[in-house]
Amino acid sequence: MSYLKQITSPTLLINEDICRNNLKKMADKAKRHGMKLVPHFKTAQSHEIGKWAKDYGITEITVSSIKMAEYFCGQGWDNIHIAFPFNPLEAEKLNALAKNQRLSVQLINVAVAQELNETLENPVGFFIEIDAGYGRTGVEVSDFGLMEAILRTAKKRDVLQFKGFYLHAGHTYYEPDKARIYAQTRAALSMLKNKYRTEYPELVTRTGDTPGCAVIDNFGDIDEMGPGNFVFYDMMQVNLGSCKVEDVAVALAVPVVDIKKDRKEILVHGGGVHLAKDVLIEPDGGKNFGEVVWLHENDWEIPLQRSFLKSISQEHGIIKASDDLLARVKVGDVLGILPIHSCMTADCMGRYLSLKREWIDHAEQAY
C-alpha cells in the first residue's frame, strides 16, 4: 500500500534517501577538514535517524534539553552534549542520567558550576560557551576572569571535567557575510585554545551553526562541528544559500479541502499547529509559510510553477496556487509543503512517515 493511502490528516513525511545524503555530505566535509561531526539532534530528535547517522561514523550527538538527553540515553552514544546554558534546577536529574551515560553540559557562570559541584556524584563534562558576536548567550570572548572563575570552581572536585570551548555563530542566520563571521569564530576559538591548552592539553573547540558549516571551507584549527538543521534542511536554509530545494528532506502532507479558482487559492488542512509560524517574505512583501510540492509514490516533485502557503491560522492553510496546480488538483488530494523551519515543524508533528511506509519515532511522541 502506498504511503499516500495512509494519510488522512496533516502528516510529516521524511525522505530517507535525502536525509542520509545530507548526513553523508556533512560527515564527509568534517572528515575532509580533520574535524569531528557532533550533530545537534534538536532537529531530528529520533532514535531511528540516530541509527542512520551512525552509518556515517557519527558517535556523539548534541541536544538542547535534559529531557531530550534522557530520550537518547541508552542508545549507544559515546557522549551526549546538552547545548543550552545548564538549568541548575535539573542538577539531580543530570546526576541520575550521568550514572549510565556520558554527558556534557554548557556553563556560562560560576553559580551553576558551583551548584553542579555540590550536587553531582557522577562525572559530567562541560564546555564553556563563548559569545564572539552573536549576543544571545555565552561568556564574552575577552572575559578571561569569568572563564577562569568557572574553571577554578570546577577544580574543587573531580565531578566536573573541562572539555573545551563551544561557540554558536548564530548570526549567520541573519548577517550575509558568513566568511567574516567565521573569521571571527576561528580567531576566537584559536586564541582560547592557545591560551588554555598548556593547562588543559586535551581541550577541544566546537562550532555549530548550519549556515556556516554548510558553506564555509576554512575552519582553521577548530576541532569539532555541531550543526543540526542540515539533517533535514528547510526553505529558510535554501533562502540563506545553505542548500538547494532538492536537499530538503521533510515535507508536511496536507489534505486539500476546498479550491477557489477565481481567487487562485487552495484551502488545506495544515496550519500553525503543524508548521509553527516561521515565515519568509516574498519580493512583493507577501508571506510564505512553505513551498508546495507534488507527492509521488517514492518521492516528491518540485513544480516548475511555484505555489506556496501564503497564510496560516491554527488548522487552516491557504495556498497561493499556480495555474498548473489549479488545473491538476482536486478536493481530497494530498499536497506536500516544504517547511520554512524544519526543526519547529518536526517538533510540532511529533513523528514522521517515511516514503517507505514506515513510521519513524520522534522524542515528543514519547511524552
Features:
367 residues; alpha/beta; Lyase, Ornithine Decarboxylase, Chain A, domain 1; TIM Barrel; 2 domains; ten-stranded mixed beta sheet; 12 helices; 21 strands; 30% helix; Ala_racemase_N; D-threonine aldolase; D-ser_dehydrat-like_sf; D-serine ammonia-lyase activity; lyase
Descriptive notes:
The structure is a single chain. This protein is of the alpha/beta class and 367 residues long. It folds into two domains: 3-12 and 244-366, D-serine dehydratase-like domain (Lyase, Ornithine Decarboxylase, Chain A, domain 1, Beta Barrel); 64-227, Alanine racemase (TIM Barrel, Alpha-Beta Barrel), CATH 3.20.20. Helix content is 30%, strand content 26%. The protein is built from twelve helices and 21 strands. Strands 1, 11, 12, 15, 16, 17, 18, 19, 20 and 21 form a ten-stranded mixed sheet that branches. Strands 2, 3, 4, 5, 6, 7, 8, 9 and 10 form a nine-stranded parallel sheet that branches. A two-stranded antiparallel sheet has the order 13-14. Strand 13 (280-281) and strand 14 form a beta hairpin. The radius of gyration is 22 Å and the shape is elongated. It starts with 10 loop residues before the first strand and ends in a 7-residue tail after the last strand. The mean pLDDT is 95. Its EC number is 4.1.2.42. One of its GO terms (molecular function) is D-threonine aldolase activity. Keywords: Lyase. Belongs to the DSD1 family.
